[in-house]
Amino acid sequence: MKLNPYNNTSLNFTVSIIFVLLLTACSSNNEKEIIGNWENENGDLVKFRTDGIVTGLTKNVDKEFVDGSFTMKDDSLFIAFVVTSNPKEIRGSLDFLILKCDADSLILATDLGNLNYWRTTP
Question: What is the pTM assigned to this prediction?
């Protein structure tokens, strides 16, 4: 009697585990790669730290500082932020799809288009 490998429960379980491990490895790779300093074409600066803190400086007229936290899951990046501006504090959150995250570039998808960043030195 010959066994059909496609009906083998053990094989299906093994393939499922490998798939989950690959997804986890890709996600953790993004988490490692995103740590550091990034700049976009507008001169906005963003720093992701290993402790989940994100800071930034927008180069608009007021040069506003942004503080917050970030979490990642699969190819999603969630940022909760606080902008201290006169006369009030602004709180909010952003949810991005990570299109690319490697040693040199970070591309985030938004409803308004993509945000392109490149790694900078501290």
Answer: 0.71
